[in-house]
Amino acid sequence: MMEDELVPRLPVDSETIDFQNWHISYLKSHILKSICKKGQDNNCTQHEDDCCELCTYRYALELPHLPDMVFHKNKLSLKHKDGALLEFLPMDSLRLVENGKQPLQVACAQEWKESRPDCHMEEKFKPFDWTFTTDYQGTLNEKFRVENSDMSLNKFKLMQREKILFYHDLTLFEDELHDNGISSCSVKIRVMPSGFFILLRHFLRVDNVLLKMHDTRFHYEIENNYIFKEYTKREATYSELKNVPPPFFTVPNEIENYLPIKEKKAYKLYFK
After folding, report:
1. What PANTHER family does the annotation carry (predicted)?
2. Residue 101 has what DSSP assignment?
3. In what order do the strands lie in the sheet with 145-148?
């Protein structure tokens, strides 16, 4: 028996569908290990050929530490027959987290600190965005032509009952902020006879301080030569939400209706 056959294989989940000249696929796997292959307090050399996955992430992102759970192999990919490629990648989502290389003012950080006067607070305030906030909007290749748009998402069309040909929900990363909230980035896709819809969401809840949501929605209708993209940023402090039922704070789809829009942009992504 080969030596590597003795190592239990971690589950990997994948599925593909060919739809209207698009090849759509996802890969779902385990979380990134939290210890270097060389041991608890060791690191691989940056450019060595067999640098482990954890150290590869550390060197690429230069963050003081990574989220609790990084699903480093999770990926959603949509490739058109003419070459346009749209992907959703954990590494790219974390590249947009402030890493302390530039000055950073995290909203409400001082207020949060004062609301948690325990002896371990100082070590949690590192010179980087400890909330792992990202406004990642997907990864496009050069085959796409992007134009600003004044259109709005066709919610009426999306609410129509249709057969679901393909559906999946992938987490890219998640962190519980030292049990003081949650920061998560996920992407969902559903394919219907009329087209496909994707929701990429970063949801942040810092308990007793603020909630923030970055949503990027993609809607492709089969009669079009573009994908419509809408980016929305919502944010509110706990004091601004004092009349909202507390159970809603942990359910993004519920609290979304109470968070005011701070920024909204729309685009057409032409793929041919």
Report:
1. GAF/PUTATIVE CYTOSKELETAL PROTEIN (PTHR21021), TIP41-LIKE PROTEIN (PTHR21021:SF16)
2. S
3. 69-70, 166-175, 181-192, 195-206, 210-221, 226-237, 261-270, 145-148
Q: By 3-state DSSP, what share of the chain in percent is helix, strand and coil, each rounded to 5?
A: 20, 40, 45
Residue written as token pair 């690191």: 43
- The total of structural domains in the chain comes to 1
Kindly tell me the burial class for residue 124, based on how many C-beta atoms sit within 10 Å of its own C-beta (0-12, 13-18, 19 or more). middle
d(CA 248, CA 246): 5
C-alpha R_g of the chain: 20
**pLDDT in the model for residue 145:** 97
CA dist 196 and 203 (Å) reads 22
Strands (DSSP E) found in 115-180:
139-140, 145-148, 166-175
d(CA 166, CA 261): 30
Task: Tell me the one-letter amino acid at 141.
Answer: N
Rounded Cα gap, residues 37 and 39, in angstroms: 6
Report the SS3 class of residue 186.
Answer: strand
Which tokens sit at 245?
């039922």
Check: CB of residue 60 under 8 Å from CB of residue 24. no
pLDDT tens for each residue of 221-258: 999 999 999 999 999 999 999 999 999 999 999 999 99
Cα gap 201→232, rounded to integer Å: 10
In which residue are the tokens 């006879």 written? 193
Whether residue 170 has pLDDT greater than 50: yes
DSSP per residue, 96-128: TS--SSS----TTHHHHHHH---TTHHHH--SS
Two tokens at 153?
A: 């998402």
- How many C-beta atoms surround the C-beta of residue 265 within 10 A? 13
DSSP 100: S
Domain containing 223 equals 3-270
CA-based torsion, 237, 238, 240, 241: positive or negative: positive
